Amino acid sequence: MEEIRNIYCVGRNYKKHAEELGNQVPSEPLIFMKPTHALHTTEGEVHLPFEQGEIHFEGELVVRMREDYHPDKPLDAMLDGIALGIDFTARDVQSKLKEKGHPWTMAKGFPGSAVVSRFVPFPGEEAFREGAFSLFKNGRIVQNGYPERMIFSLRELIDVIGGRLGLGQGDIIFTGTPEGVGPVARGDVFTFEMESGSQSYAFGPLHIQ
C-alpha cells in the first residue's frame, strides 16, 4: 500500500444513510479521523474486534492528495488517486459514545477499520461525480454508491478539511457511505467494484476473521 499520512473521514454524507441510522442530516461536513494503523488492504484476512460488540461495514470512495491544499487549486491538480474502501465501525461502542457526547475514535480507529484498495488515477472532478461503486458481501450487492448523491461535494469536503485542518501529499479522505450498511460476521467475504471515468475496477476478496 502506498504511503499514507492522515486518514480523514466524512460522516453522514448521503441523506439516506443518515436517515437509516436515525441521524439528523448535517448542515456542514461531519469530519473525523482514523490512525494509520487502522489501514488494511482489500485483499487477504482482516481481524475485527467482535468482542466489543456488533461491527458494521460502510463502503466508501476514497481519494488521495497529490500535493498540498490551496483554495485556488482545481481538484484535478491536488488529487492523484481514487480507491474503494470500508470504514468498519464498532456500532455498539459508537452508540454508547454518542449517548455520552464523546468522540467516536474508539469505535472507528481500531486496527483493520480503514480498508483501502489500491489507488487508480483520479478521473477528474466531473467524472468522479458521475461515477459509481458497489460493495458485495458474500457475493450479494449490499451497497451501491453514486457520488452525485453526496450531500457535500468533493470540492466542499476538500475546502473544509484543507481550510480548517490542512491537507497535504499522501493524505486520504473517505468521502462518506451510502445507505445499506450492516453487520459483519466471521467468515464473511467482501468484494468491490467501481466505475471511474471510462474504466471499471474490481478489488478483493477481503475475508473477515
UniProtKB/TrEMBL annotation:
Pfam families hit by this protein: FAA_hydrolase (PF01557)
Q: Does the keyword Transmembrane helix apply?
A: no
Q: Which residues form the Fumarylacetoacetase-like C-terminal domain?
A: 7-195
Q: Which GO terms describe its molecular function?
A: hydrolase activity
Q: Which UniProt keywords apply?
A: Hydrolase, Metal-binding
Does the record's keyword annotation contain Hydrolase? Answer: yes
Q: Which InterPro entries match?
A: Fumarylacetoacetase-like_C (IPR011234), Fumarylacetoacetase_C_sf (IPR036663)
Q: Which family does it belong to?
A: Belongs to the FAH family.
- Protein's name according to its UniProt entry: Fumarylacetoacetate hydrolase family protein
Protein's organism:
Halobacillus kuroshimensis
